[in-house]
């Protein structure tokens, strides 16, 4: 298969994954299905593990984070683990616990903004709803299930320009009052029972279960427009949740294509967009607990940490042609010009010269170009799971990402070549036979 046809196949599958992974729960569910099909075995926190050289395993946490790893034929204690990290969550609008509102005959739901969302693009979109529901069945036991309406059930209409003449000069959005989605019109004065609506959706999607009562939920709205290639030559990928499901997918593809010689690991954490401090976030114990159980004892764990390396993959800011002055003159990454090494002197990114040097070496071996991103010295810098992982575990870490436009919008844009190239470099990293440090 030619590289062009391989890239086309990769992007087709990527777009399908992005369209299906509408929440972190659905992203992990989709990843698990791929891992199961590839022969990985599920592990549980509350059970003993019997790990074997050449074995392939995964562990989920909170249904929204996952660690998948393969124990290579070479001892992980001797050669370390090649790790890739990403995150499953994206900024969105989450439904409040008591959300029902009926105003002027329009049934609406109260929402809370999750993460640093760009709010303007949420107006006038065809929205659906998905997430995890906790319920008890007729047997009285607490259970959970995923739901996804997978059709447009809501919208947030803009206010007409005739009623806001200055909207194009200045527009502020009140997240409490301005972004409540409209779901339907009701003739009376009583709002719908939202939990009853959720119970009906549960029964429709899971006819095998008996739902006595919906107890709680974690549900978020999303844009029903599916991921797609666009541009005169198909140069771009447009989708919701590119940040950071694109990195989850590239890491997964690289893991599945690794040759099995080295010990490899992929961690996809939740809650990066809100600080990572949770049981399933990078500040939680998930990765450390898995590595300690792989190592077996404290001495072996310390040796494993010393010989391992993490590539934290999270999208980077491409230079926007309409706003080029927002970038440092020499560090404006272009779409379709290769993955980006992210550098910050104040350790908002975990990259150092050694980890960056290894990535450049790997990219050179794959004939993949590499770019660099440094934020303007007079602007604040975002961060990733990279410094959190490095600081919490002591693992040498590199921050990289695919250049992207409209980050944190309801629909983001990336180059159709970059994700494929990143997957190639990550696979090369997973198969790298040499030591992961220059020492």
Structure description:
- It is a single chain.
- The chain has helices spanning 3-20, 24-37, 76-79, 194-205, 242-257, 286-295, 298-307, 353-365, 385-393, 418-431, and strands at residues 41-42, 56-61, 65-70, 81-87, 92-103, 106-114, 127-136, 142-148, 182-185, 213-223, 228-230, 236-239, 263-269, 309-313, 316-317, 340-342, 371-373, 396-401, 403-405, 412-415.
- With 439 residues, it is α/β, with parallel strands linked by helices.
- The chain folds into two domains: 3-90 and 240-431, 3-Layer(aba) Sandwich (Aminopeptidase); 92-223, Aminopeptidase i, Domain 2 (Roll).
- A hairpin with a 3-residue loop joins strand 2 and strand 3.
- Its EC number is 3.4.11.-.
- Belongs to the peptidase M18 family.
- It comes from Sediminihaliea albiluteola.
- Pfam families: Peptidase_M18.
At the third CATH level, what is the topology name of the largest domain? Aminopeptidase
What's the helix count?
10
For the biggest sheet, the summary is: 9 strands, mixed
Look at the structure and name the CATH superfamily of the largest domain.
Answer: Zn peptidases
Strands of the biggest beta sheet: in what spatial order? 1-2-3-13-4-14-18-16-17
C-alpha Rg (nearest Å): 23 Å
Oligomer: single chain
From the N-terminal CA to the C-terminal CA, the straight-line distance is 39 Å
Number of domains: 2
What's the level 1 CATH class of the largest domain?
Alpha Beta
Element order, helices and strands?
A: HHEEEHEEEEEEHEEEHEHHEEEHEHEEEH
The helix content is 25-40%
* Number of DSSP-assigned strands: 20
